[in-house]
Write a structure and sequence with these properties.
Strand 8 and strand 9 (260-267) form a beta hairpin. The termini are far apart. The protein is built from 15 helices and eleven strands. It is of the alpha+beta class.
């Protein structure tokens, strides 16, 4: 199969302003991927900024941005709220390259935040107190605020987006159809926002619940072809439900600016271990499904309400509870469903050289639990949201 295409980006200038995304795939990397029939990989991560001492969020993005090294300015971006900041890794072929890129980005951004009198936290929603943050001073964000009002309360919501290269938009749409049954379990594995406003919400991913307030958030609909995809995007823009293609917040979509499928339903992961595992699984899943697309295997037409129920269970339970086995439509332990997904994509993990590392990371996730489970364990021991935030700050930065 052809692994990488470099079709011209279709995004409008407004859409291109909306998010970072991996930088354009260099010709040399694209040629290497094509020659080896492999897929490239990129990750976006959104972070929260908190006070240097207290667990409250702070509107420090401009001060932090001023401290970012010059050579990283192109891959560090503003997000919607002034208490958020975002990074985008360069496209990678090897998981070790993604590890190196994200390690540097997390460490450099953590150091920049500290120099600015703040701290960097990889968490889906603000666990501690804080004022309702203002939006970043960009025309597009002001337009979003004017049209959609108070849909993103508090300090902002922080996700992880995985970009996997695809050969062409038509194949991409069919991959989106095949992805639908698998995304709830990947969402469960990223659950990392049980606390909000200094209390346990009862959900493993409270970010997911708040994020669904936006009109275009939800499972990707089943689509016949790319023409239908493009028509639906145009119809949604015309309806006023989104300003531009950058606001297409389906759990998986075609990137508006890059030749990738973008998987974007998860919380930002607390550690690089978690982020790398999810990225490896996402790429292996896309590669596995691409074989089915090329073979003409039809995607299962899972009813939309059942998908919504599975995503709700992912937000509520994380990996520590149940989710829906789409083959049997029965509730099963989410951890077993993740293992089922791992076994399903194992051949592509091996073909991309990720199997050994992914196996180790899978073992660590099963032992430690999700970010949500870790936060709750700390809160149960100490009763202190400050201790939870201190843990998250250290997990985000990684070993010194």
């Amino acid at each position: 199969m052809t692994a990488v295409s470099r079709w011209s980006p279709g995004g409008t200038p407004a859409a291109m302003e909306s998010a970072a995304g991996p930088t354009t795939i260099p010709d040399e990397l694209a040629e290497q991927a094509e020659s080896q029939h492999l897929l490239t990989l990129g990750v976006e991560e959104e972070y929260l900024l908190v006070d240097a001492v207290e667990p409250r969020s702070v509107e420090a993005v401009e001060d932090v941005f001023a401290q970012v090294p010059e050579d990283l300015r192109d891959v560090v971006q503003h997000e919607f709220m002034r208490s958020q900041i975002e990074v985008a890794s360069p496209p990678q072929l090897e998981l070790s390259g993604l590890f190196s890129a994200l390690t540097r980005l997390r460490r450099e951004l953590s150091a920049a935040a500290e120099r600015a009198g703040a701290r960097l936290v990889a968490v889906g929603a603000a666990p501690g107190p804080g004022p309702h943050a203002r939006v970043v001073d960009k025309p597009r964000y002001h337009r979003m605020r004017e049209r959609f009002g108070d849909l993103s309360p508090g300090a902002g919501l922080n996700g992880m987006h995985v970009h996997v290269s695809i050969p062409d938009p038509e194949s991409g749409v069919q991959i989106l159809n095949h992805l639908r049954p698998w995304l709830p379990i990947l969402q469960a594995a990223t659950a990392n926002s049980p606390l909000f406003g200094s209390r346990d919400t009862g959900y493993a991913s409270w970010r997911s619940v708040m994020w669904e307030r936006w009109p275009t958030v939800g499972p990707t609909p089943y689509l016949d072809d790319h023409d239908q995809y493009a028509m639906l995007v145009a119809d949604l823009e015309a309806s006023g439900a989104m300003l531009d293609e950058g606001m297409l917040y389906w759990y998986a979509r075609l990137s508006a600016n890059y030749p990738t499928v973008e998987i974007r339903m998860g919380d930002v992961c607390p550690t690089l271990d978690d982020a790398l595992l999810l990225a490896a699984l996402a790429r292996a899943l896309v590669a596995t499904l691409l074989h089915d697309v090329r073979a003409g295997v039809p995607a299962p037409k899972i009813p939309h309400p059942l998908l919504m129920a599975a995503h709700w269970r992912a937000a509520h339970d994380g990996l520590e509870g149940l989710n829906i086995d789409m083959a049997t439509r029965q509730a099963r332990p989410a951890g077993r469903l993740l293992r089922q997904l791992f076994d399903y994509v194992r051949p592509e993990l091996a073909r991309h050289g990720d199997l050994e590392m992914a196996s180790v990371l899978m073992g660590r996730l099963r032992k430690r639990g999700t970010g949500a489970a870790r936060q709750r364990a700390i809160l149960a021991r100490s009763g202190s949201v400050s201790d939870v935030v201190d843990h998250l700050v250290a997990a985000t930065r990684g070993p010194r």
